[in-house]
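Review box. Two proteins, two foldings.
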Amino acid sequence: MTVQRPSHTRARRALTVAGISALALGATYLSAPQASAATTASYQASARTLTVIGDNNANTIVVSRNAAGAIIVNGGAIAVSGGVPTVANTDTIQIFGLGGNDVLTMNEANGALPRALLFGGTGNDTLTGGSGGDQLFGQAGDDTLLGRGGVDVLFGGTDNDSLTGGDADDQAFGEAGNDTLIWNPGDDTDLNEGGTGIDTIVVNGGSGAEEFSATANGQRVRFDRVTPAPFSLDIGGGEKLQLAANGGDDSFVGGNGLAALIELTVDGGEGNDNLRGGDGNDILLGGAGNDVVVGARGNDVALLGAGDDRFDWDPGEGSDIVEGQAGRDRMLFNGSNGDEAFETIAVGSRVRFTRDVGNIVMDLNDVEDLLLNAKGGNDQVKVGDLSGTDIVRQTVDLAADGGGAPDGAGDDVEVVGTNGDDVIQVKGRSARQLVTGLSASVAVLHADPAPTDRVTINAAIGDDVVSGNELRAPAGLVIRGGVGHDVLVGSQGDDEIFGEAGDDVLIGGPGRDRLDGGPGDDILLEGEILVDGEIATKAWVAKNVRVSDGSTAVTVGGKQLIVPDYQLPAATR
């Protein structure tokens, strides 16, 4: 039986870098011995080498030493022929598992051992090195390789292997198959080569605060821990990079140029983490704690985890899926200084937020707050019926880039009611308007005075009440009743009120208002409204009502005007 050995030049380069020439190792491992009926061990004094050979069964071979320095196999149960190997007269220990699912281990409980060459052979083998500069060869089968201490070189071989270098600067080659190359806390700077197949590099962080980054380095990927105790990974031939930051307030930044090289999955774990993806399609997990997650370029998936988290989006980024999960979570979406159209709608229990520029579609679930910074430009913002979703508030900030002041451009914000009977209030003053009464409230900040900016309430279907009588903010108010018998009340400013289909009551208020009842038997009230009780008399109606065509003659026809049950502002009572 011939031992499968690395045939590509990078494997030989790795051995040379480790300080070991493939030729210097000799024919003792280039051609595997024949299996015998039982495990055997022999010592070659001239080569200063201990060789242990398994059989074709599942072998457990443990090489250790006693306190005096003698090297023993399986606690002395397997005799060593050819002499007594010791740590003083032995430079190399080589173990051949051959057939079967073997476990080959260097046990240094009683002290350090010479370097090891471990060959799994066929089968699903587990190879564990010692503190020397070891070489581990998984060969055929799904193998698990752990270098432990020393500058080690690991070769997975064929099939799907798991390789962990351990302490010191190691080199791991997955070779054929879908391999996993692992870095754990306490390990050092390593070189990882995935080889053929779909290979995954896994980095496990510690329990404290850590700062990580991943950047493109030509056709390779460089992964760094910046603080504490810096280390780096030189990655080639790997398809996936997974970071489990674990505990602590961790940060990760993915650089540009990674999209063509590797897929990122970053799990912040416990702690208040700050995660930023690269320019590929990343998976970002906030974990427990109050996290800030930025997808960056590419179409990303963010699972924010437990805690009050925030997902940030900036121009140039992609269409993302955001799962808020437990806690009160927010999406912060930043527009540009150009003309843009934004829309928020419900799709079942999920929320779809879109931006026309770039054809951006954000798919949200378990997100409670949505903050849109529209910035400059003539922007259009539409907030649909969000019933059945987790959104409780959407904030639309119309300030110029830099915040704090209106942008001077013409912005329109439309809020759409439900298909039921809504009672909607619009209130506010100065630079803030608030729309309440729906499943999600809508706040509009830093609006320009009318007629530059407008807030439109579209009551949609149903017998609705929309009241702006507590609104003294600068933006113009537009109310559309939609289908149904609606009561629509304007603000303290100059309003546009449209009853649309149905028998509606339109009350303008003290400003210069435009009232249009639309189809149906509508009642339009404008100017000083003096109400004595809830039932208005015919004389009061004849004096104060104007129909939508502008005529002054009013025929009431025996109908009574019933004033809706709401509190009129003091200025109009």
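Next protein.
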Amino acid sequence: MKRLLLFALGAALLSASPLALAAEKAAAKAPDPLSVAAERAGAVYRKGETLTFVIKANPGATTPAPAEVDWALTKDGLPPFRTGRARLEQGRALVTGTLDEPGFVQCRITYAVGDKKLNALGGAAVSPREIEPSQPAPADFAAFWDAQKKRLAAVPVRPRLTPVKSGRDRVEAFDLQVDGVGSPVSGYYARPSGAKVKSLPAILTVHGAGVRSAGLSTAVGWAGEGALALDINAHGLPNGQPASFYEALANGELKNYRSAGKESRDTVYFLGMFLRLIRAIDFLAQQPEWDGRTLVVSGSSQGGAQAIAAAGLDARVSFFVAGVPAMCDHTGFLARRISGWPKFIATGDANPAPEVVAAVRYYDAVNFAARTKDPGLFTVGFIDTNCPPSTVYAAYNALKTRKEIHHDVFAGHTNTPEATAAMRAAVKRHFAAMK
């Protein structure tokens, strides 16, 4: 196993690099007095190359910067390998380090302002295209999912469409329920009025973690762009209920859904969620207006994992978009790396239950990515602590088709406006290319 080598140099004055200027612009929006970011534009380094992180005072801060700051360098959020204290000179200091394996390095600074403790985080990639999955797929991965799809196919596709107001001219909308294995597909379906047979692309949009209704506006928005659009909630729940309905479920029976049933591949909660993806695609593929070739699945976080899973499970998918995807590289600990959300195996657990380790590999986005033949777009946040960038890259690198990845160097677990625009543009390009 390769070693992580991290070290620090003393404080020094630094000339402004393009990335430092961009970080300063982003930090000026926040009141915190300090920010930290990789010095290099793009924040991508090679193995063994010296990384430099810039700690700097934000001129737009409402409180003055402290004279000293504590720092910690980590391998993508794993416990610090090296810590120290830097003294700012003329509002700047630097910390340097190296990583002799592919991965991500993060620099976290902590400091006090009065009685308040603040922190900031910066990230850098190290040979990210060389990050490999921590484990291969189980030998019977395909056989397991083929058996699950056979179970689903035995249930007839029975859509129930209830008209709802779309709020947009020339767009029809419906509350949709479709039978499946367990909970039904539940979402909002929208289509352009009066479309010709076999004339339209289709898009399925899926949700991040949490408990909520499907989004009518999402489906209507894509239908307004000329697509058959279906937005489904993650749990097969009724749509359009009062907030208290979803809050009660989130605090009750669905409170810990993310880890439910993880002891067996047959009981992992996400089994039903992933089968609903296929059933949603069954519905879209039955629509007479569908062009028969263009079907996109798009989502972020848990939705990003669903998008990858759909592409890996269903050949009818022609393109997918996975923003800051969750559920990547569940067994990262075996490669001395961090794992993705929902962290079925807790970070630092030296003796995880063997049955859990075995079961969750059937739900790893890495393995679905390796199976798909569809092109796709990923986004990744360099300081994402929920879906760490090394896990995202493990899945991205497993994808052997045409692919793109959007780097959000200063972003945590979010899609910035730039990432959101890139995701939307990718879908539109695919629609245009498939005409």
